[in-house]
Structure formats: C-alpha cells, structure tokens
Amino acid sequence: MTPTGHRMKAGERRETVLAAAVAEFAARGLAGTSTEHVARAAGISQPYLFRLFPTKKALFLALVDRCFRQVAAAFEAAAADRVGEDALEAMGDAYHELLQDRTLLLLQLQAYAACDDPDICEVVRNGYGDIVAYVERVSGLPPAEVTHFFATGMLINVIASMDLYESPEPWSQRLLEGCKEEA
Fold first, then answer.
1. Please, is 80 exposed, middle or buried when counting C-beta atoms within 10 Å of its C-beta (0-12, 13-18, 19+)?
2. What pLDDT was estimated at residue 6?
3. What is the pTM assigned to this prediction?
4. CA-based nearest residue to 161, from 106, 79, 83
5. Which spans in 33-142 are helix H?
6. How much is the pLDDT for 11?
7. CA–CA separation, 113 vs 50, rounded Å?
8. Separation CA 159–CA 104 (nearest Å)
9. Which residue, 18, 112, 154, 167, has most beta carbons within 10 Å?
10. Residues 6 or more apart from 112 whose CB is under 8 A from it?
C-alpha cells in the first residue's frame, strides 16, 4: 500500500525496487549486494523481491538496462534538434549533469566490471551500442570524432570516480583542463 492507500501494481513496485536497489548495487556490485538489504530498502519482503525479479542477476540486469536508457534519454533531450559539434557539446553537458548523481556513475562502473558474465556483457554492449549509434546518427560526425567523444567520456568517468574535480594535484588539474578544452 502507498501513503495514499492504493495498492501498487507490479510495474510500480518494480520501479520502487529498482530505485532502492541502485544505491546497493552501485556501492557493492553484483556479488556484494544483499537482496535482503534491497528488499528492506524497497519496503518489501525478500520473497516478494524474487517474485518481481527471479534472481539477483535479473535485478542487476534491469538496473544496468535502466542506467543506459537514462543516459540515452538525457542525450536525446539534450541534442533535441542540434547536429554536429553542437549536438556533441549538448550531450556532453547532459552527461556532466548526470554524473552529479554518483550512484549512476558507480553503477556504470560496476556494470563494466561485471562484463565477464556473458549475460551482463550483452546488456552492457547493447546499451552502450545504442548510445553510440544514437550519437553517430544525431551528430553526423565522422567515426574519429564520435570515438573521441566517447573516449573523453570514459576519461570523465575515471576523473569523477576518483573525485578529481576537487583534487589539488597538478596532474589531475591538467587532465581536467584537457577535458574542458575538448568540450
């Protein structure tokens, strides 16, 4: 039941579970996440969690898919009717905004780290591939420029994961300046 007294449908409950699970999986990865903690955070029993998601891996896969869809939606909203470098710049700015949510970044990194599992690798490849195809189509830029955009994005992931934005280290400041020049 919700605070308004109506019973949640399974789809709504699944979204509640995904919202609760993202912090757990982002912090602990697939192997380290407790489904008991996820269920408690979602306000449901562990058996009900497994009625919604038959395995812990199925829950993780749903989160990874959701993460890539969130990035894709942000890119689509940012690019709107832009093309070329303008589209890349708008999508890059949107990605910087997304990275303000550290859990999204950490979940992405956990997903990449779990790619030794073929099922996870397939979801990660499909999600990443969909974003690459979208950026190629919308920007209309040559492959080298699109590759550079994604390479810079991965460097930004590493910078953000180490929280280098606040680091006084000269080498980190040089990396940050290089990323700003690319944007």
1. exposed
2. 57
3. 0.88
4. 106
5. 35-42, 46-52, 56-79, 84-98, 102-113, 118-139
6. 75
7. 24
8. 14
9. 18
10. 124
With beta carbons less than 8 A apart as the criterion, state whether 165 and 177 touch. no
Burial (0-12, 13-18, 19+ Cβ within 10 Å), 111: buried
The pair of three-digit structure tokens given for residue 123, joined into one six-digit string? 């979801």
The residue type of 8 is: M
Tokens, residue 131? 């974003």
Going from the first residue of the chain to its last (183 residues), give the mean pLDDT of each consecutive group of 10, the final group possibly shorter. 61 90 95 96 94 96 97 97 95 93 94 97 98 96 96 91 87 84 64
At 56, list the tokens: 């812990």
Provide CB contacts within 8 A for 152, sequence distance 6+: 92, 179, 182, 183
Q: Which two tokens stand for residue 63?
A: 């989160």
